[in-house]
Amino acid sequence: MNIPDYYETDILSYFGDHTKELALYQAMFDRMSAVVPDASVKVQKSQISFYGRHLFAALSLPVRRKKDWPQHCLLVTFGLAHRVDHPRIAMAVEPYPNRWTHHVVLSSMEEMDLQLLTWIKEAYDFSQYK
Questions:
Q1: pTM for the structure as a whole
Q2: How far apart are CA 53 and CA 75, in angstroms?
Q3: Cα dihedral sign for 29, 114, 56, 68?
Q4: CA-CA distances (angstroms) from residue 72 to 7, 17, 46, 121?
Q5: pLDDT of residue 65
Q6: Strand pairing of 99-106 and 89-96?
Q7: What is the per-residue pLDDT for 18?
Q8: CA 66 to CA 62: how far, in whole Å?
Q9: For residues 91 and 6, what is the distance between their CA atoms, to the nearest angstrom?
């Protein structure tokens, strides 16, 4: 994964006192790096964005937390050419025709499974050609 200068400092600043979420992020980053090694990462104010040719995924601290979500979690966001109907998808919206944004709540290492990583890889591939 291509990381910018000051990445470590920016990550620590983004997560602040959210140490459990930081641990989740670091584990997810490692798994994503294995699946999309040519991707780039950029720490922003509201999210950590992942790029191929275009933005394909983001990890963020939930801003508007639903009451049934775990206390410590991350929101994984990724874009696909189609809607995925799956119990793990917390929300899916179509901001543009045939461009679906999906949100998955991530609260444990076990949830970083083949299914989630397949969606991430598909999002990366879609970002390369859209």
A1: 0.93
A2: 22
A3: negative
A4: 23, 12, 17, 25
A5: 72
A6: antiparallel
A7: 95
A8: 9
A9: 32
